[in-house]
Design goal:
The chain is 22% helix and 21% strand. The protein is an alpha/beta fold. The structure holds S-adenosylmethionine (SAM).
């Protein structure tokens, strides 16, 4: 085993360091890079309330360009500094136009180079401002821009707030004929706002055979255990560097616990003494919840097999992956934000886990899909095959493709169960307010109208009259759309 002694770098940190100036030693320079202060002064968006749930709610869905929403949220004292977790899965600079499985246009991913980096940096500076001091950000990217954005994130958060670079297996192996290795991975960069952050250690159950590592059996109790050192790398001047039982920690090491704690552990029989008097700590199999999750995630492929339930939105992520992230980095009641929310995966999982949420997306197809998911849940992937709508069921889009109605027969989960009621395992989401950027409100209105009609027909307790017409009384400037005093987020 390699032995290394960590050495700490001294450099300025703290809340007074302006985002964009935290890591002055190493920066990415490119044309068009704006001062962070200018980004923090961006104009907030003007929004219209399109719908609100009958009960007061903290959850918000915005059909809007996200930088204006983030600017508005950053001015709201009820929100700014209150967000515990941000997960974003932005466009990856793929130079692609994405369509849903129904061939409806979803969004363009055409930015590249400096324009792309500055687009994301702008949002990341605002997101950093919005995070709670013990909050975390997860940025999902692929190999094209992940390394550029690692440098940008170090600039904004400070490299000492970098936590993990997670590799996710995104698909099954491809039968590559190119002269290179098959690309099956993408990446999630995990940063925290400060050095104290919410962390519910995720563990995976022991796989068969792993328990063989617990090779010793304690006489008397028959408990299986393994032996691990009682010391750790690094010299300490406090109690963990003191003598214990007449022994100094080995050179370059310190005790893992103060001598008084080691005494208590020994009294409980938790220290194993070798024949020549060396102490080792016993780690019991029955006290272990499993093995801590590592930074390679193999189990969260996108919907590439017929068993996975999906919405049909392109690039939608695996809900189980979001469950892992949300459970690890937030607690029930916490506020979770996704400002590239797409089909609403983050929002739906956050809601199931009892978190409050804010979602933003400026794609009409994303709005349609999210509302459908909230009402009906997801659908087994295989059911999308061969179920394109016929002309009498839907409209034609600009490409001449037939588009399906939001709740058209043959596409909804409700139809699968033979009724309009949601699936038994589906948890309908109706506890939120829906806002649209003024310029997009007219586009959203028919989708929202169709949705409110559906949910009131479905008998899930939400009446269509909560739909607020674009010209109605909730049309307002951003200031009244983001109530600061007595804010429900406060
Ligand atoms: C990769 S998809 C997100 C998919 C999502 N994670 C899911 O599970 O469905 C990226 C999303 O970002 C949205 N988007 C791109 N630029 C945006 C912007 N400036 N403001 C708001 N949304 C944006 C796109 O419409 C698209 O839905």
């Amino acid at each position: 085993m390699a032995i290394g002694v960590p050495r700490k770098r001294q450099r300025p940190t703290g809340p007074d360091i302006e985002p964009g100036a935290a890591d002055l030693e190493l920066q990415l320079t490119y044309p068009g890079k704006r001062p962070a202060a200018d980004i923090l002064r961006l104009d907030p968006v003007e929004v219209t309330c399109l719908w609100r749930s009958p009960e007061p709610t903290n959850n918000r869905l915005y059909f809007a360009e996200n930088s204006g929403v983030l600017s508005a949220l950053a001015r709201d004292p009820g929100i700014c500094g209150q967000i515990r977790l941000i997960y974003i899965d932005p466009p990856f600079a793929t130079q692609t136009a994405f369509h849903s499985r129904g061939l409806d246009h979803a969004y363009e991913d055409t930015l590249a180079g400096p324009d792309y980096v500055e687009f994301l940096r702008t949002r990341l500076i605002l997101l950093h401002r919005l995070l709670a001091d013990d909050g975390a950000l997860y940025l999902h990217l692929d190999n094209k821009m992940a390394f550029h954005l690692k440098i940008i994130l170090d600039e904004i958060f400070g490299s000492e707030c970098y936590r993990s670079f997670i590799t996710r297996k995104k698909c099954n192996p491809k039968n590559y004929t190119r002269k290179q290795y098959g690309n099956v991975s993408d990446y999630i960069l995990f940063y925290t706002k400060t050095k104290a952050w919410v962390w519910n250690r995720p563990v995976e159950p022991w796989t068969e055979g792993r328990d063989r590592e617990y090779q010793y059996v304690e006489p008397g109790t028959n408990r299986r255990f393994m032996k691990v050192p009682v010391h750790a790398p690094g010299v300490r001047r406090g109690a963990t560097g003191d003598m214990w039982r007449g022994m100094q920690p080995p050179p370059g090491k310190h005790w893992q616990f103060p001598p008084s704690t080691l005494d208590e552990m020994d009294a409980r029989g938790e220290i194993f003494w070798s024949a020549n008097g060396n102490p080792r700590r016993k780690v019991y199999l029955d006290a272990s919840e499993g093995v801590g999750v590592q930074d390679i995630w193999m189990d969260f492929r996108d919907a590439h097999n017929q068993n996975v339930c999906i919405t049909g939105y392109p690039t939608e992520k695996n809900p189980d992956m979001l469950r892992r992230i949300i459970e690890a980095s937030s607690n029930p009641g916490d506020l979770v934000l996704d400002c590239f929310s797409g089909s609403g995966t983050t929002l739906a999982v956050a809601d199931q886990l009892g978190r409050r949420w804010i979602g933003v997306d400026n794609s009409r197809e994303a709005l349609r899909t999210t509302l459908k998911r909230f009402a009906d849940g997801t659908t087994p992937m295989g059911d999308f095959v061969g179920k394109r709508g016929s002309k009498d069921k839907g409209d034609s889009n600009a490409n001449g493709n037939t588009t399906l109605d939001l709740f058209a027969a043959g596409t909804s989960a409700a139809e699968e169960t033979g009724s309009e009621a949601p699936k038994p395992h589906h948890h309908p989401i109706r506890d939120f307010t829906l806002w649209a950027e003024h310029a997009l409100a007219a586009e959203a209105s028919p989708i929202v109208h169709e949705w409110t009609t559906r949910i009131s027909r479905g008998g899930n307790g939400v009446a269509a009259h909560h739909f607020v017409q674009r010209t109605g009384r909730f049309r307002s400037r951003w200031a009244s759309a983001f109530p600061s005093s007595g804010s429900p987020m406060g």
